[in-house]
Write a structure and sequence with these properties.
This protein has 15 helices and 22 strands. The protein is of the alpha/beta class and about 450 residues long.
Length: about 450
Amino acid sequence: MIPVPGFEGRRVAVFGLGRSGITAARALQAGGAIPVLWDDGVSGRMQAEAEGFMVEDLTRADWSGFAALVLSPGAPLTHPKPHWSVERAHEAGVPVIGDVELFARALAARPQGQQPRVVAITGTNGKSTTTALIGWVLKQAGLSVHIGGNIGIGVLALPEPTADAVYVIEVSSYQLDLTTGFAPYVAILTNVSPDHLDRHGGMEGYVAAKRRIFQAQDGEALALVGVDEEWGRKAAADLRAQGRRVETISTVDQAADIAAAPGVLTLAGAPAVDLTAARSLPGRHNAQNAAFAYATARALGVSHEGAVEGLLSFPGLSHRMEAVGRLGAVRFINDSKATNADAARQALASYPAVFWIAGGKAKDGGIDSLSDLFPRVTKAYLIGEAADAFAVTLADTPHVVAHTMERAVELAAADAAAAGGEQVILLSPACASFDQFPDFEVRGEAFRAAVLALGARPEPAA
């Protein structure tokens, strides 16, 4: 755990007692603060009381006595309307921050020369794979690495800082909205496409939240920006106009600082990194992830050879293009983390033909934007709340409404076996999971279980 100084003897309101809230309370208490906790749910309050925290109904509290409100990223800051705790904090002139900002303040409070370096990753898609990949490459190079944030362990639950440590942190737009002094040594924006627009008041607010990852960087820090979309190109141009240190990464523009194509990274116009042996990094989108990891490793002093070795040995990320089993000549790929159409596009584009399992709780636009890839779909198996709507979109593509994961896997396996030859069954839902599963991880494990229940043998690690 990382103790948070700066609030010694002062009351700090903590709203939202999930993973980040409880961890923030522990870190504040360890730093000498008096955290005052509340949650709209009874279970969260019971856990806080069981740990001995002060639990107080913040709807009735005297907010003039609070030094800050630490808000759960799940509670709306501005849209569709501010959470009631945010309104109370604003009325009392109390700053509203999140766990990533507490993390930043804890690191900044360390003596000069003893502050660890931070790599932070955000973006609409690819940030979890990029985070895991960077962490892996740096660890293989012998660095002391701690990985967390929006992936895995909350930032304040990571080990206490040491001068030689590197923190590799995935940060969401919700978390970035609650930061002011977060200043990564390497800040990465993988890509931007419409997502979470209801929470940010539209695309402009969403992009602004993502760009906050660069807001407090100093002149020595590095900004790595994906420039395949107009929002990334604008961000890179603005940062360069400010005299910032920027490197651009693209899968379409050979003039970018690093051009990423399937199997190769090109630097300054010359092929520099051969990725053809990287089994866990198939497709153009994974080449982009590899480019971010390579650039980060080099910025942190890892040799070219060390960075490449790390890329080639990466075992992959669970639920993201994860090979989970094989039944005869049929391979099963778990891409449950594809919770929107843009993420599913990356997976569909990686295979010439697939038996596609899709559906769940649809995002705005559904799968309409994927129509150019429908010719790659041998047959689709639709599950969850979106199944009927997706069936309409796929009217000219062979499909069946399977409703459940188990039925979809069963039907797809039978059809793929009947087709003969090497075949791929791809779970890439293009949807949130919340209609049938609590999160994408549980959905992915349901897919894995259904695959293994058919008698498939697990795929060996890369």
